Amino acid sequence: MASAVCLVECMGALKYGCSSMAAGLLPPTPFFHGAKLGPANLGRSHKVSMTTTVPPKAKEVGKSKIHFQPHEVQEQVTHSMPPEKVEIFNSLEDWAENNILIHLKSVEKSWQPQDFLPDPSSEGFIDEVKELRERSLELPDDYLVCLVGDMITEEALPTYQTMLNTLDGVRDETGASPTSWATWTRMWTAEENRHGDLLNKYLYLCGRVDMRQIEKTIQYLVGFGMDPRTENSPYLGFLYTSFQERATFISHGNTARFAKGCGDLKLAQICGTIAADEKRHETAYTKIVEKLFEIDPDTTMLAFEDMMRKKVSMPAHLMYDGQDDNLFEHFSAVAQRLGVYTARDYADILEFLVKRWNVEKIEDLSSKGRKAQDYVCRLAPRIRRLDERAQERAKQGQTCAFSWIFNKDVLL
Ligand SMILES: [Fe+2]
Ligand SMILES: [Fe+2]
User: Fold this and answer.
1) Is 56 within a domain?
2) How many structural domains are present in the chain?
């Protein structure tokens, strides 16, 4: 997980004018979804609360102002999955051990960041660092913005482990629970932890970026958290992670290709190696959803519809550097322009998942389930059409100063 990158509505909001992507398809915020959209929440009571802070809200603490809350208006729905559904995940315990944990790699066979970086204990360290810095001179500023945004997203990993542990029926109840679900979450986190570590060290050594500003952004982002709107439901949660792992696979794959094009083969290898991890994670999460479609097709279909109607928010959507209130949108716009992650990718991921789960062919659905099926199967072309229209309306020539690269201007 932990994609860099933008998402359809964010890119639309920034670059193309807010209404573009949203019109008729993606509901604008604030949008009170709690009463109707939970996958299996009919007749159930669940808590709905609301955060109302635009832009980042500062509170007076002693003499200093501290930003405590993200700059988003969002309704928060909790525990929308009926309690009896927890049994489904308990019953899948052995299945997860045999089918999901096999997608983890042992620590002894795993790559480590040090495999790709100059060895500080070697005599050649300084020369290797010099070479790294020379290679990085070929990387343009807009590419660096994308790479930094990807790195910051990876570095907010504590938030993603927290998110997985919000999910009813699969959370790690103790912090060292032996269940398959909890084991997966911890081992997945441990694998992911290398991603931000490696990118962070590379960017530190290259000397092209303002590390202090980047570190501030990471601290803000971890402090703000994220709101994927998964409502403590593992149905929504695993749909979300399926989508996100693929998004990160695409994004890191594109930064790898771009680095190769700039002649930095080591960086290309770094990004490509991370992308390969994301692909493996995608395989595991999509397998879980495939199983849910098999044993509980109606709930899973309604959850899929719910997730797509709400839009899949990006993990770093609350990023802030202490200066730019629209930092995520600006970062997303650069990623879109460079082709690192685009609105078209969003539609492609949706289409990929629809095919991966054979959604069109799923039977045994209620009438609501069939409507949900129809909605998700037709959605990708609609998103693409909206994207094309938005691109036509896009304002060209806007720039933004990014603190991550010493306030240099970058074309959006
Ligand atoms: Fe991942
Ligand atoms: Fe990652």
Assistant:
1) no
2) 1
Q: Is 192 a catalytic residue?
A: yes
Please say if 300 is a catalytic residue.
no
Q: What angle do CA 195, 200, 206 make, to 5 degrees?
A: 130
What is the 370 CA–ligand 1 centroid distance (Å)? 31
Domain that includes residue 227, residue range: 94-411
DSSP 3-state of 250: helix
154 classed as catalytic? yes
Whether residue 278 lies in the annotated active site = yes
Q: Is 188 a catalytic residue?
A: no
Integer-rounded Cα radius of gyration of the chain? 21
Residue 191 CA to ligand 1 center (angstroms) comes to 8
Write down the catalytic residue from 142, 277, 321, 387: 277
Residue 87 in any domain: the answer is no
Q: Does any domain span residue 259?
A: yes
pLDDT per residue as tens, the chain (412 positions): 544 443 333 333 333 333 333 322 222 222 223 333 333 343 344 555 544 444 566 666 666 666 666 665 567 899 999 999 999 999 999 999 999 999 999 999 999 999 999 999 999 999 999 999 999 999 999 999 999 999 999 999 999 999 999 999 999 999 999 999 999 999 999 999 999 999 999 999 999 999 999 999 999 999 999 999 999 999 999 999 999 999 999 999 999 999 999 999 999 999 999 999 999 999 999 999 999 999 999 999 999 999 999 999 999 999 999 999 999 999 999 999 999 999 999 999 999 999 999 999 999 999 999 999 999 999 999 999 888 777 776 667 899 999 999 999 999 9
- Of the residues 150, 278, 345, 387, which is catalytic? 278
H-helix segments, 124-233: 125-136, 141-155, 157-164, 180-206, 211-224
Q: Which residues are annotated binding-site positions? A: 154, 192, 195, 245, 278, 281
Active-site hit among 281, 299, 300, 404: 281
134 among known catalytic residues: no
Q: Which CATH number covers residue 366?
A: 1.10.620.20
Q: Give the H or E element holding residue 322.
A: none
Position 300 in a domain: yes
Tell me which of 33, 71, 195, 252 is the catalytic residue.
Answer: 195
Max CA pair span of the chain: 69
Predicted TM-score of the model (pTM): 0.87
- Centre a 10 Å sphere on the Cβ of residue 342 and count the other Cβ atoms it contains: 23
